[in-house]
Amino acid sequence: MKVTILTPEKSLFEGNASAIVLPGLGGQFEILDRHAPMIAALSKGVIKITDEKGNSQKFEISKGFCEVLKNEVSLLVQS
Prior knowledge:
Blueprint: E1 2-6, E2 11-16, E3 19-24, E4 27-32, E5 38-42, E6 45-50, E7 56-61, E8 63-69, E9 72-78
Parallel strand pairs: 1-9
Antiparallel strand pairs: 1-2, 3-4, 3-6, 5-8, 6-7, 8-9
């Protein structure tokens, strides 16, 4: 799935991933390939992105929003 992470200042990440773990308001949740469409608010925590080769990257955020639509994940965050 295609993933984009944007802050008001810059783009933090743009690429493909097999899984994303996000800090939701009610706790952590994971988005996998072909996830159902959704919109969620994010709280302070760490975003963990795992690519198709199994490598992972982490980004700390203070808050934000996530949109999943047509196998694309868009994250608008403050870090």
